[in-house]
Design brief:
The protein has seven helices and seven strands, in the order H-H-E-H-E-H-E-E-H-E-H-E-E-H. It is of the alpha/beta class. It has a single domain, classed as 3-Layer(aba) Sandwich (Rossmann fold), CATH 3.40.50.150. The longest helix is centred in the N-terminal third of the chain and has 20 residues. The radius of gyration is 16 Å and the shape is globular.
Length: 219
């Protein structure tokens, strides 16, 4: 994909997500989850389950910051403190995140994660493969591990279409929606330390979040 086509792809993603999320008022729907809160928790709590100690957490594609808010609350139940950070391609969604978490308003960044140079590194970073075109997935993941995840840190790769009969129904246009995250990572030459799963029995939806160790992949 040449640079102009790539920029057009990201522009299309920007418009698609911003329009879809801002059409709703419920905080989880502004973060990409339809239905009641119970579905949101079932399919998002596995992200929090990947975090095993206090530290900084960057949510790439943070939208209105609701996942960050939830992860902070869920981890506090076990005595773990989260220093939240968010990155999104949409400035409108980032403004909502700053309103949601005003005490952390300077922890939010508007940028394209594919080319973003962070001002610091983070202990835990969440992303999805569908944030870039399929041909750029490996490049994207390795760059995050090298430039965004802190030494000793973990990259959390989420797949919200796990085992879906038709994963291409996913919202992002032109990206590759995997049915099997571990198989997809294996094709990219990436082996996670472990993973966490979540399940929504109402719509028979499954999520898988793979944990990639920075130091292992860069050694």
């Amino acid at each position: 994909m040449n640079p102009d086509d790539l920029q057009e792809w990201f522009d299309r993603v920007h418009t698609t997500l911003e329009d879809a999320y801002l059409a709703h008022s419920e905080p989880w729907r502004q973060s990409g989850m339809s239905g009641p809160y119970q579905r949101w928790e079932a399919l998002r709590r596995p992200v929090a389950d990947c975090i095993d100690c206090s530290g900084s957490f960057l949510d790439i594609g943070c939208a209105n910051g609701y996942l960050l808010e939830c992860v902070m609350g869920w981890k506090a139940e076990g005595g773990i403190t989260i220093d939240p950070f968010g990155l999104d391609i949409s400035s409108a969604l980032i403004e909502l995140a700053k309103i949601r978490l005003p005490e952390f308003s300077d922890h939010f960044y508007t940028a394209n994660a594919y080319e973003w140079l962070p001002p610091r590194r983070f202990d835990f970073v969440r992303t999805e493969l569908v944030y870039v075109p399929a041909e750029h997935e490996r490049e994207y993941i390795l760059r995050l591990l090298e430039e965004v995840v802190a030494p000793g840190g973990k990259l959390l790769v989420a797949n919200y279409m796990e085992e879906h009969p038709d994963p291409q129904q996913g919202l992002l246009p032109g990206s590759y929606h995997a049915r099997d995250l571990l198989a997809r990572l294996a094709l990219l030459g990436l082996k996670p330390l472990s993973w966490r799963d979540g399940y929504d029995p109402v719509k028979n939806r499954k999520v898988r979040v793979a944990i990639l160790d920075r130091d292992t992949h860069l050694s």
